[in-house]
Amino acid sequence: MPSGKEGCCMSDIDHARALLGMAYDDLKALQHMRDPDAFAEGIFGFRAQQAIEKSFKTWIAAVGSKYPLIHDIEELHHKTSFR
């Protein structure tokens, strides 16, 4: 199964920083979507999902692990537990 950062020359922490920056951008977009008349619920939900997904992938990359190239938040959450 393909995983994040394959073929990338960034260090784990630099990769995590890049992901965190993208998650922060999604969060900023959400903050500007508070007016339900201006943005459809689906668009808001998609941005929220993206922010959460990238945050989980940030954590996985920061500890030096590879994350799967998936969008399943529940599965990514399980990968952050590091049992």
Structure description:
With 83 residues, the chain is mainly alpha-helical. It has one domain (12-79). 59% of the residues lie in helices and 0% in strands. Helix 1 (12-31) packs antiparallel against helix 2 and helix 2 runs parallel beside helix 3 (73-79).
Average pLDDT over all residues: 88
- Tally of distinct domains: 1
Largest sheet: none
**What general outline do the C-alpha atoms trace?**
elongated
The succession of helices and strands, N to C, reads HHH
Structural Rg: 14 Å
Classify the secondary structure makeup into a structural class: mainly alpha
Task: Offer a concise description of the structure.
This protein is an all-alpha fold and 83 residues long. Helices cover 59% and strands 0% of the residues.
Keywords:
single chain; 83 residues; mainly alpha; 0% strand
Please write out the topology.
Blueprint: H1 12-31, H2 41-62, H3 73-79
Helix pairs in contact: 1-2, 2-3
